[in-house]
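Fold it.
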Amino acid sequence: MSFKGAKLLLFLGPRLLVILRDQKADIPFPGYWDFPGGGREGDETAQACALRETREEVGLIVPKAAIHYSRRYPRPDGATWFFAAEISARSVDDIRFGDEGQRWDLMNPDEYAAHPLGIPRFKVRLQDYLQSCRGGPSD
């Protein structure tokens, strides 16, 4: 199935790894907090795309087995995938920041959802993930 790119909600223990996007006028959401991920290369799968981008952007090799959530989001310009994975909080010591973005940080999911510089559609995707973990909306 065709897709444009993939993102990874990467939890190091209870906190999400986020990347502050570059401050460039020619990219979407300059200076906003993003998740690891990016555009598809060649004929790679969505999962391979998210894992490759994570390795390139923050130096972490996330095992496929750590991925416990996936969802495809159709968009007019091409579908995107969102994955979620959890690795040890100690993996923070293995982060090697790449050449995209200004810096990385760790945030609680609720902190990202409320942050004025969280990418709006990614806040929605994070909420979709959190609802799936909680079993849907409560009555």
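Helices lie at 46-58, 109-114, 120-134.
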